[in-house]
Amino acid sequence: MTEVMPNFADEGDFSDAKEGLVAAYEGAPILDAEGNEVWDPSRYAFVDGEPPETVNPSLWRQTRLLRIAGLFEVCEGIYQLRGFDLSNMHVIEGEEGIIVVDPLITTETAAAAIAHYREHRGDRPVIGLIYTHSHIDHFGGAKGLFPNGVPDDLPVLAPVGFTQEAVGENIFCGIAMARRAAYMYAAALEPAPEGQMGAGLGLTTSTGSISLIRPNDEVSETGEERTLAGIRMQFQLTADSEAPANMSIFFPDHQALCVADIAVHGLHNLMTPRGALVRDGHAWAAYLGEALDLFGDETRVMFAGHHWPIRGGERVRERLALQRDLYTYLHDQTVRMINLGYTGSEIAEELDLPEALASEWSCRDYYGSVSHNVKAIYQRYMGWFDGNPAHLWQHPPTEAGKRYVELAGGPEALIEKAEAALDAGDLRWAAEISSHLVFADPANVEARDLEARALEQLGYGAENATWRNFFLMGAHELREGRVGAPVIATPLDMVSALTVEQILGAMALRLDGPRAAGAQVEILWEISDTGEAFMLNLSNGALTHRPARDGVEAPTTLRMDRATLDALIAKTEPVEDLLGSGRITVEGDPMKLGELLSFLDEPDPDFEIVAP
């Protein structure tokens, strides 16, 4: 099938992206307190003119659009700060001050963005904060808005379940997600025609300090309303679409609709390559239809957590309908083909968008892709197993690699076949078979270089920014070695937002069960200032906990206040100092605490991805 492409002569997105500009952001580097650079969009200044051969022309176009940055008037009283991070910050001007919607990823970029706003709109106080959903690029910069401390009476509004989802995603598998995010956002690659070309949703992610101001007001139902600083708001809950806790906001007096991330200028992820829970494409499509019904007739401008606004009631309605049909088509056609017996990988090869969708820039594969979204839908309904019993118990990569090398006739024969595939333009096959040799013999320099060349060419051709980043990061690590994860520490604000039960549950996820299989440990944890008490039990290699009954005793009791528990878990202070200062007291057998801690693994933020 001939690939359908939008019209490159259509410059409408460039006009839309520049409309409403109040003050451009020229891209001066943003630094942290130690002088380290956390954000510098000027590194993308090379993106101009015609695309080189090393960049897909569609991705080149998208990155040019993402470079249009600054303070923009969405409509009277609503302003967008774009280009200060992967995501957008929005400012709603009220009677006594401003409401900030989604304060970016890090405190440094949030502070720079609000300073840019105040330079051109006046020094208005932040009197309200709203999080549209539970992803870190929409809340991590919150404390950067308040250099003199967060006001005690600050209203902080979020969708129901926000705190649990925001913290849980970053705690349970946070190390593994961060390592894979290094690939997804090409942390080790410089922006360049041969390197990183943005992330599709924005240029990249900032690397500063992450914070969290916990919500004190939650929206629990579609149709709820709030008025803050004279600003009326109506809410639509969109849970399990782009995030588990998610909502859209309609501002009736402005005739403006904020759709969070469920309708951006491109196809979004139903399964992010960094790893996350699979999202519900069916619900996503339904929410877009519901937004059209609820707000379509009244809306005159629509804006989102990424990219530029859409203006004009008819255009807004067309875009909502287009995005609704996009996710509906992917979901329904995937399910139809599942019921015809196709597997996820087969559907991903066969399913193409109809021309009416594929020819729209707003449906292109810049962040999500048809291919991996189809596989996400398959996974959501059918799981990892495709039903073929030959695939039920396959060898892991290293053992499979050894057998493939033998089957090919040895390393030299396999390299010869991979080189032939590379020369013939079969890049996927060249990468796959050379990867088998890398896993069979990771020291084979010729195999690593061959796979790197294949991945590099796959990256140069990718329209999807995150696919490009994965391919090029794989090539980089094959040649240069591992780069780890850019951010691995658990921020204290995140730990403080967990319940004690969640902290103990996260501890259990670090237990090395085989080593601890013969151990018996029982410890009573008492949190002095909250009155909470939990019994922690280690037996049969399983670490469990339960609320402690009044008067219960244990061989070992730990007492501390909640701030000390947070410092212990976030590792902001050494455990020896906490014990030595008396902030943690131990009654009973102190050796049991050491025994328990000895069984806890330290996660590896630098694990291998492209080699064993």
Q: How many strands in all?
A: 21
Write out the CATH superfamily name of the largest domain: Metallo-beta-lactamase domain
Overall tally of structural domains: 3
- Determine Rg (CA atoms, Å): 26 Å
Please give the largest β-sheet. Answer: 8 strands, mixed
Strand % is 15-25%
- Category by helix and strand content: alpha+beta
By DSSP (H or I, 4+ residues per run), the number of helices equals 21
The separation of the N and C termini measures 37 Å
Find the CATH topology of the largest domain: Metallo-beta-lactamase, Chain A
State the low-pLDDT regions, or none: none
Report the mean per-residue pLDDT as an integer: 95
- Under CATH at level 1, the class of the largest domain stands as Alpha Beta
Q: How would you sum up the global shape?
A: globular
Helix coverage percent of residues? Answer: 25-40%
CATH level-two architecture of the largest domain: 4-Layer Sandwich
